[in-house]
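Long-time lurker. I teach an intro course on protein structure, and each term I like to show students one example going from raw sequence to a predicted 3D structure in token notation. This year I'd like something fresh instead of my usual example. Would anyone be willing to generate the tokens for the chain below so I can use it in lecture? Attribution to the forum is fine with me.
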Amino acid sequence: SYPRVLALAQTIIGKLFLLVVIVLFAWHAAHRILCSVHDLGMHKGLVAKLSCYGAAMIASVVAAASLLTIGF
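-- Reply from a regular --
Happy to contribute to a lecture. Here you go:
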């Protein structure tokens, strides 16, 4: 439930756990999208890599900033 997740996100260990889960999912999704682009016959060039991994980096930073805004 929401109150339980909020209580988890208000501790240091909880914030780290949630950040790790979110970041791992974001980077895994970016890698799978890049592999799917290659499977569709498109070259995995610099633009595709920057787009996929850049989006994962932005998602990671947004997740970290969002978790930091939740009080202790």
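Some talking points for your students: The chain has a mean pLDDT of 94. Residues 12-39 form the longest helix (28 residues).
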